[in-house]
Design goal:
Blueprint lengths: L2 H25 L6 H19 L4 H4 L2 H8 L5 H6 L4 H18 L2 H13 L3 H16 L4 H21 L7 H17 L9 H14 L5 H27 L8 H14 L4 H26 L7 H14 L24 H19 L2 H10 L6 H15 L5 H18 L4 H12 L10 H7 L6 H25 L1 H4 L3
Helix pairs in contact: 1-2, 6-11, 6-15, 7-8, 7-13, 8-9, 8-10, 8-12, 9-10, 9-21, 10-12, 10-21, 11-16, 11-19, 11-20, 12-22, 14-15, 16-19, 17-19, 18-20, 18-22, 19-20, 20-22
């Protein structure tokens, strides 16, 4: 690329978005009325800026607050409601719990203990990282989980590399360690809060169809999917593409024990965070039973997440020799909070609502449906395939926000349950593995220096195909038994 292009690529991206805005407004290819034409042009503007990374995703998500009131699409008061939607507080609560787990090193203790159990030969170390990363990412942000696991993985690579036996393939071991923590984070699809696209879609379904997808229902279907995906990840990486030949390592075992010894006995703050964490999970899982047993306290997932989050700010850390009265979470800890993701959700909800109000999604869905097949399996396969490969070049949250209304309209036009197409589209959006920009975890591990782009392309393509097949089968065979609109 020319030097000037790199210097001005953001300006070029911004101008491209504005040009597309003007083209769609003045050309009006769909012969839309004024309001619908404006909404479509703004949607094109936002999507192009998201795809081209003209500005931070969260900043682009603020565009509706400015343009919708200015162009008389909706009032500022109405638009701003989208940025305080209940689903945002579900994600916020999950973020707070994740920060507390990281603050008190509970994540490190969990990961090291899992690796200690799985063993320390090359394959078992990788299996331990896949299991621990996948488990943590079910409850925490996949980006935060990868960032937590990254330094541990780098340390293990260093120790094993310094003591490698003859015949050991350290290049393969290092590559697989890095790729495994990214892909295991992406594949943690078994809970609603496991990945941002899940949260975005559950919120859309609630807003559009007044249907709440239960936390437990989601887990019953997609926790097994997560387990199968993680097992396939292990098999593909270790047994097929990149065997490492590293036998049981005394040094690796000593490193794990040394790290655990350094952590010391489980501290009082860790125990208290763990109690809040387990209690929150218990309420999420048993919410429907609790609501059915009594009529006074009606729980939902967002309320439960905020109960857990508020508890962390209320409960004393209980550290020895600490007279400051520090809580498990202090407000200063929230500087590490991914506030931008919450804004991104708000902007996406505002855009989706405007597209719905302008009836654009219904028209687009009807148009696509006129070319679609009525075969449910084929439709699920096509939607999943498009979603997985589209997420390689587009923010997966933005992708779900944009695609959910379209896919729902296609399903309605074909007289199908919208969940049958919407959920595989959502799951597929989290599985991008071919490019560093596909998901934040991919970008984090690519920066390690252990991964070449051709390795990520090859591995990601294989895992994309496996993800497409598994998601299609689970959504076609199992999903209708539990979830129906």
């Amino acid at each position: 690329m020319p030097v000037w292009f790199n210097k001005y690529k953001k300006e070029l991206a911004q101008l491209t978005g504005l040009l597309l805005f003007l083209i769609f407004f003045f050309a009006n290819p769909l012969s839309l009325p004024l309001k619908a034409k404006l909404v479509l042009a703004i949607a094109v503007l936002m999507i192009s800026w998201w795809v081209l990374e003209a500005m931070p995703l969260a900043v682009v998500a603020l565009v509706p607050i400015v343009l919708f009131p200015l162009l008389n699409i909706s009032s500022l008061k109405e638009v701003s409601k989208s940025y305080s939607d209940s689903i945002i507080f579900l994600f916020m609560g999950g973020f707070f719990i994740g920060i507390a787990i990281e603050k008190w090193n509970l994540h490190k203790r969990i990961a090291l203990n899992i690796i200690r159990i799985t063993g320390t030969n090359g394959n078992r170390i990788i299996l331990g990282f896949i299991i621990s990363t996948g488990f943590l990412s079910l409850w925490l942000s996949n980006t935060a989980t990868t960032m937590m696991m990254f330094p541990i993985a780098m340390s293990v690579i260093h120790v094993i590399g310094n003591n490698a036996q003859p015949g050991a393939n350290m290049k393969n071991f290092s590559l697989v360690m890095m790729l495994s923590i990214a892909y295991a984070s992406n594949f943690a699809l078994g809970t609603i809060i496991g990945t941002p696209p899940n949260v975005a879609y559950v919120n859309y379904i609630h807003e559009k169809f007044n249907y709440t997808i239960g936390f437990t229902d989601w887990m019953i279907i997609f926790m097994p999917l997560t387990i199968v995906l993680l097992l396939m990840l292990y098999w593909v990486m270790v047994k097929w593409l990149y065997p490492n030949g590293i036998r049981q390592s005394v040094e690796g075992k000593e490193f794990i024990h040394a790290e655990l010894k350094k952590l010391g006995p489980t501290s009082t703050p860790e125990k208290r965070v763990l109690i809040v964490f387990v209690g929150t999970i218990f309420l999420w899982v048993c919410k429907d039973i609790i609501n059915g047993l009594q009529p006074w306290l009606v729980l939902d997932d967002s309320i439960i997440a905020m109960i857990g989050a508020i508890a962390l700010f209320m409960i004393a850390a209980g550290k020895k020799d600490d007279n400051s009265g520090e809580r498990l979470l202090e407000w200063k800890d929230t500087t590490r909070m991914a506030w931008g993701i919450l804004l991104l959700f708000g902007g996406g909800i505002a855009l989706a609502k405007a597209l719905e109000d302008a009836k654009l999604m219904d028209q687009l869905g009807t148009y696509i449906a006129s070319y679609a097949t009525g075969n449910v399996f084929i439709m699920i396969l096509v939607v999943t395939t498009v979603s997985v490969f589209l997420s390689e070049v587009m923010s997966n949250v933005a992708q779900v926000i944009v695609m959910a209304p379209v896919i729902s309209s296609v399903a309605v036009a074909l007289h199908m349950d919208p969940l049958m197409l919407g959920i595989p589209m959502t799951l597929g959006a989290s599985c991008a593995g071919m490019l560093p920009m596909g998901t934040p975890p991919n970008a984090i591990v690519f920066a390690s220096g252990h991964i070449k782009i051709r390795d990520m392309l090859k591995t990601g393509f294989v895992l994309n195909i496996i993800s497409i097949i598994l998601i299609t089968l689970f959504c076609w065979l199992l999903q209708p038994m539990i979830m129906k609109l």
